[in-house]
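[job 0412] stage=complex_fold ligand=3,4-dihydroxyphenylalanine status=START
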Amino acid sequence: MDQQLEQLRTEALAAIAGAADETAVEQARIKYLGQSGALTAVSKGMKDVSKEDKPRIGKLLNDVRTAVTSALDERKAALLADADAAAFAGVDVTLPGTAPRLGSLHPITQLQDRAIQIFRRMGFALADGPDIEDEWHCFDALNTPADHPARNEQDTFYLPDGRLLRTHTSTIQVRTMESSAPPIRIIAPGAAYRRDEVDATHLAQFNQMEGLYVAEGVSVGDLKGTLEFFFRELFGKDAQFRFRPHFFPFTEPSFEVDIKATALGAADKWLEIAGCGMVDPAVFESINAKRGDTAYDPEKYTGFAFGFGLDRLAMIMSGTPDIRYFTQNDQRFLAQF
Ligand code: DAH
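[job 0412] stage=complex_fold status=DONE, emitting structure tokens
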């Protein structure tokens, strides 16, 4: 029996070493260790082995089984390693890979963040308000009477209950003054909505940034200095501006701010970039009426306000010819920012 076992061991180890693939290894396993395999057959003969031989033969049987089992495992592992090596053959792992492209913030978000940073340096705090507004916050409080063309239903999105999507972020001035007494100094970025025909320069939803500063003794000079500082930070120290008289119902006097396009390397013409003015005392009066106090006493306080379109600014700054690029999510456009 000893001889039989030794022979089996030699034969099995040779067969396993010669197994060329996983199937061959499995066949060898079945042949020697399977239910009707050669080793199983030998172990069935154990019952006929004499008492004195039993321990020795038993140990030998175990040794052979262990040797065959580990030879099978080793062969399998070796075959797997060979397959891996073959798969990697010809692959140069030291070559530079294809780096995944990192995403970036949307150009409007980038501009908004930059604008917030600049105003924060001048002590402006961030304020917020709802996109769905009532007419009072969007118009009445801002000295825009019911017969004003801005309130035309062709110009604004109205909800069935009479509320509307705010047409400008100036609603946030109103809400801030309603809840806080002067002095206040806020900026308020946010979405604004208008029933405009969508084209290269108009979207029905766009982004604005509003500003408001109310305190004692605030003057047109403060307004001018603040906006000039802001736009010079954005466009460069040598950018040229002009404040052109204009009309807004909620400011008096009112201005539009133009920048000389040459600051952007473009033709020699003026581009309108913001609206602004000194808060109309009529606005303070409606706030006081709503608050039920005289916190915004027009005899004591003055203030300036401004608003500009972030989309428009981003277009001007980046030379983007069509505002719709900002909402189309085309990687070829966005990847440039
Ligand atoms: N609300 C104006 C608009 O949407 C922009 C604006 C102009 C805001 C003058 C102001 C301002 O606060 O004082 O066109």
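The longest helix spans residues 54-88.
[job 0412] exit 0
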